[in-house]
Each structure stands twice: as structure tokens, then as C-alpha cells.
Design a protein that fits this description.
globular; mainly alpha; 12 helices; 2 domains; 68% helix
């Protein structure tokens, strides 16, 4: 095992260190939150919602497996060079970064599998993040392989349950209640910094999705320039909100729960409502190209 590590880490310099740290950061929760916002605001809100549910489920299961196996990381082992230690809390198996990347990008690729560019990007990110965790000396090879396998199985299993579970005929209040309770249950096994972040965001994101679906029906597809503009506005306001509370979150992890719950609510309801009010959304079927401001689902102005 140490011989394998020596082979992986035989070539390293400041440039490759920075490159693999950045690549590993692509597998962290803030990256996925940003991508979910972009998907929801511009591409397919229902797919973004399903992806958020899938990702939380995968990360909760990852936390459960880490607690069960409780394996030690290679950090501190003789002959292993470990850096970027802040990204490696808790146990080692399976790799959360690798499992998260596999879950997220495999599901995205299945949605757009006809576009080979997404296949190439997905393969590069999934394999690259796994290799980066080895290069950085934060996981054993078995952790990486386990992350790939668990992530793949979760995506395949979710596909079978997706339509049945997400189309249950229940009241809006029941949906919002489940959106709060179920992520909090996940927090019991996923109580790292990343766990507080993800659970908080998903509570707000899923609750906001149900509110948006019931009262707003935001139309996400717009021209490219407008999509870029509204994404920059939405992410800037979200970033300012999170930055405002940053000092507190560094001392009290639980603060992430209300802060990112509101951040998730902004992503799936607040920002779409603002875009809707400003007319930054797609047109209803049959609408003419002239810009109009729609104030409700009925089409009345």
C-alpha cells in the first residue's frame, strides 16, 4: 500500500499541489450548492430538486458507513505525504468526496447522456476527484473504490424509486413537514461541518420548491445572456447572506442550519420569485416575444 502511495506522490510540486487541491474542492458541498442553483434557475427546476434529494441521501448514507467502518485515514502514516487536511474530518471509508462526485455527476450525465461533452466532463471530474484524494494523502485506494461503488448503486436505486416517491399525492403542509424532518434525521449520522451545511440547504431548498410549485410556477429557461445575469444576481445575494454569518459559523456549526436553510429557501423560492417579478423568466406557451410581466399562474398581468 505504501509503495502505491509513493508511486502516486512520487511527482509533486507547488503547482500540482494547488491543482489537486482545487480539483478536490470541486467535490465539496459549496460547489454542489452553486451547481444546484444554476440548474434550478436556468435549466430544469424539477431535475434540480431530484438531484438535491439524491445528493443528500448519498451523503447521509456516506456518513452512516463512515460511522460503521470507522477506518483511519493515511494521515500521519510513514511515507505518506498529506496536505489539505481541512477537507478530511472524520473516518476514511468510503470517500465522501468521491461518492458525492459519482452520485452528482453520474445522475447529471444520465439526464443529458446524448451530449458527449457532459460525459467527458463527468468522467474527468469523477476520476479526477478520486485521484486528487490519493495525491493529497487523505484516503486509501479502497476508500476511493468504495466511494465509486456506493455512489453508483445509490444512483441506480434512486432511479427506481424516483417517480413513485416524488409523485405521492400528499398535502403541501405534509410535504414541507417532511422536508424539515427527514433531513434532520439524516443529520444524526451526517453531523460534520459539511453535514450541517448540506442538511440546512436541503431543508430550505426542498421546502421552497414545494412553495414555488404551489404558488409561483417559475419558468426557468431564458436567453443565455439573461440566464447569466440572473445567476450572477442570485448567487451574489446568496453569497452575501452566507458571508454575513461566516464568523459565527466558524465557532458554532449549528448556525449553518438556519443560515443555509434560508439560503436554500432563497434558491428555490426567493430568487425565482424575484426573477418572476422582474420578468426574468421564460415565456408561457403561446406568448409573443414582447417582454411582459406575469404576476400569477393564470397568465393575468
Amino acid at each position: 500500500m505504501l509503495a502505491f502511495y509513493q508511486a502516486v506522490q512520487s511527482f509533486h510540486n507547488p503547482f500540482t499541489d494547488v491543482f489537486f487541491i482545487l480539483l478536490s474542492f470541486l467535490g465539496s458541498e459549496p460547489t454542489y450548492i452553486l451547481l444546484l442553483a444554476v440548474l434550478f434557475w436556468n435549466v430544469d427546476k424539477r431535475f434540480g430538486f431530484r438531484l438535491a434529494i439524491l445528493f443528500l441521501t448519498s451523503m447521509a448514507f456516506n456518513g452512516l458507513l463512515k460511522n460503521i467502518f470507522n477506518t483511519q485515514r493515511p494521515i500521519g502514516q510513514s511515507g505518506v505525504r498529506s496536505i489539505y487536511l481541512s477537507s478530511a474530518p472524520g473516518s476514511s471509508f468510503p470517500s465522501g468526496h468521491t461518492q458525492g462526485a459519482t452520485t452528482f455527476f453520474l445522475y447529471v450525465w444520465q439526464r443529458w447522456q446524448r451530449k458527449k461533452v457532459w460525459l467527458g466532463i463527468g468522467i474527468f471530474i469523477i476520476l479526477g476527484i478520486g485521484y486528487s484524494r490519493l495525491y493529497l494523502g487523505l484516503h486509501w485506494p479502497g476508500d476511493i473504490l468504495g466511494g465509486y461503488l456506493v455512489g453508483t448503486f445509490i444512483v441506480l436505486g434512486f432511479e427506481r424509486l424516483d417517480e413513485a416517491l416524488l409523485k405521492l399525492s400528499i398535502s403541501l403542509s405534509s410535504k414541507i413537514l417532511l422536508s424539515i424532518i427527514l433531513p434532520l434525521v439524516y443529520l444524526l449520522v451526517y453531523h460534520t461541518r459539511e453535514g450541517w451545511q448540506t442538511v440546512g440547504f436541503v431543508i430550505g431548498f426542498t421546502s421552497g420548491y414545494y412553495l414555488e410549485d404551489a404558488f409561483l410556477d417559475y419558468r426557468e429557461r431564458t436567453r443565455f445572456a439573461l440566464s447569466v445575469y440572473k445567476t450572477l444576481v442570485g448567487l451574489t445575494l446568496l453569497g452575501l447572506w452566507v458571508w454575513l454569518w461566516h464568523p459565527l459559523t466558524q465557532h458554532y456549526l449549528w448556525v449553518y442550519l438556519p443560515v443555509l436553510s434560508l439560503g436554500g429557501l432563497w434558491t428555490s423560492f426567493g430568487a425565482p420569485y424575484m426573477f418572476h417579478c422582474f420578468g426574468w423568466e421564460g415565456q408561457l406557451d403561446g406568448e409573443e416575444s414582447a417582454p411582459t410581466r406575469i404576476t400569477g399562474r393564470t397568465g393575468k398581468t
